[in-house]
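Translate structure to sequence.
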C-alpha cells in the first residue's frame, strides 16, 4: 500500500482496580447489520451498552486527539497497529460494535481494543457509588452516561498532552496528526488518513526546527527534550513509562515532572489516561471551577496556584475515593460547551449553585 505524504505541517492558522468495579470481559459476537451495510463492513458487537461507553462523550472530549468521527455515531482511530472503527448500533439498543480495517493479527486486535477501552472497569458500579454521595453527579450521570476513561499507550498519551500546553483542541489535533504522520501508514477511512503512532526512535529523528516550522512553537522544544530524556532512561524510555503503572500516584507524578514541558496538569492527565492511576485529578480551569464551587467553596475567588490546585485534587479524592479521576472526568465533560447543550439549564454549575443557595 502506497504511503501518502505526511499531513501538511501548516498548523498555524493560514491503585489497582477494586473488585467491586470489575465487569466480566465483554463478549464478542457478530452484529446484526442491515444487508447493505454488512456488504461493506464487517462489524462485531462488544458487550458494552451505551451506558458503559458513549463514543461521543469519550473520544471528542479532550483525553485523546487521534480519533475522528467517520460516520453517524461512528468514530475511527488507531490502537497500537490496528485501524479500528467503533459505532453504536441502534438496532441493538446502542451497543458498541467494532470494525477492523487494518491489523496484523485480528485476535490481538480484540485484546488490544478491550484493553484500550478499559473494559474491565464497570462504570455502572462506579456511577452508583458516586451518585449515592453526590446528588448532582447522579443527575449529570443520567444525561452523560458512558463517559469512559481510556487506557492509552503511555508514550502516545504523553506526546499528545505535551501538545496541549496552552492550546485549543483544533490546534492540538493538528499537531498530534503531524506527529502521527511520522509513523506507519495504515489506511484511510472517510476523508482521514490514519497512522500507527511513531516509535520513540522515529520521534527522535524530528528536529526542533522542523516542529517549529510546523507551528508547534515552544512545544517543539518540550517534545524534542522529552524524547531525548526518555531515550536516556536505563532500560528504555517506553519501558520506563510503562513501569510507572506499578508506582504510587505521587511517585509517578514526580517521575513525569522530571521531563521537560511536563507540569502537574499534564502529568495528571498522563497518569489518569494511560498509567492506571484512577485517582489522578488533572486540575484545569473547568475542574477548578467545579472543585471550588462544590467541594472547597472557601477557596472560590482565590488564584489557582499549584498549592490550591493540589487542595482541589485532594478534595476530589476525599469525595470520590480511588476512582476519583473517573468522577472528575464526567464533571469536566459537563463543563464543555458542546456537552452543556445536552444538560438542562438547572444542572449548569452556576445555576445549580444558585439553586442550592436559594
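Result:
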Amino acid at each position: 500500500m502506497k504511503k501518502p505524504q505526511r499531513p501538511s505541517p501548516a498548523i498555524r492558522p493560514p491503585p489497582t482496580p477494586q473488585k467491586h468495579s470489575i465487569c466480566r470481559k465483554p463478549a464478542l459476537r457478530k452484529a446484526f447489520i442491515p444487508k447493505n451495510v454488512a456488504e461493506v463492513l464487517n462489524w462485531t458487537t462488544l458487550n458494552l451498552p451505551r451506558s458503559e461507553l458513549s463514543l461521543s462523550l469519550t473520544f471528542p472530549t479532550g483525553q485523546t486527539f487521534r480519533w475522528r468521527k467517520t460516520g453517524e455515531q461512528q468514530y475511527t482511530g488507531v490502537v497500537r497497529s490496528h485501524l479500528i472503527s467503533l459505532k453504536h448500533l441502534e438496532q441493538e439498543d446502542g451497543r458498541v460494535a467494532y470494525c477492523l480495517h487494518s491489523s496484523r493479527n485480528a485476535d490481538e486486535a480484540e485484546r488490544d481494543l478491550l484493553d484500550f477501552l478499559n473494559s474491565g472497569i464497570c462504570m455502572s458500579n462506579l456511577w452508583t457509588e458516586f451518585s449515592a454521595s453526590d446528588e448532582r453527579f447522579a443527575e449529570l450521570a443520567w444525561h452523560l452516561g458512558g463517559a469512559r476513561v481510556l487506557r492509552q499507550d503511555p508514550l502516545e498519551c504523553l506526546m499528545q498532552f505535551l501538545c496541549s500546553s496552552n492550546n485549543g483542541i483544533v490546534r492540538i489535533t493538528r499537531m498530534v496528526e503531524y506527529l502521527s504522520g511520522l509513523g506507519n501508514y495504515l489506511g484511510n477511512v472517510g476523508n482521514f488518513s490514519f497512522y500507527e503512532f511513531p516509535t520513540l526512535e522515529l520521534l527522535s529523528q524530528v528536529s526542533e526546527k522542523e516542529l517549529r516550522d510546523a507551528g508547534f512553537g515552544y512545544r517543539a522544544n518540550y517534545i524534542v527534550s522529552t524524547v531525548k530524556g526518555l531515550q536516556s532512561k536505563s532500560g528504555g524510555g517506553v519501558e520506563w513509562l510503562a513501569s510507572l503503572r506499578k508506582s504510587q500516584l505521587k511517585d509517578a507524578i514526580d517521575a513525569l515532572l522530571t521531563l521537560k514541558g511536563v507540569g502537574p496538569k499534564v502529568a495528571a492527565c498522563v497518569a489518569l489516561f494511560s498509567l492506571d492511576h484512577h485517582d489522578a485529578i488533572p486540575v484545569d480551569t473547568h475542574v477548578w471551577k467545579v472543585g471550588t464551587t462544590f467541594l472547597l467553596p472557601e477557596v472560590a475567588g482565590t488564584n489557582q496556584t499549584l498549592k490550591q490546585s493540589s487542595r482541589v485534587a485532594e478534595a476530589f479524592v476525599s469525595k470520590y475515593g480511588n476512582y476519583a479521576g473517573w468522577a472528575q472526568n464526567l464533571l469536566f465533560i459537563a463543563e464543555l460547551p458542546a456537552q452543556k447543550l445536552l444538560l438542562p439549564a438547572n444542572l449548569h454549575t452556576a445555576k445549580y449553585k444558585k439553586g442550592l443557595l436559594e
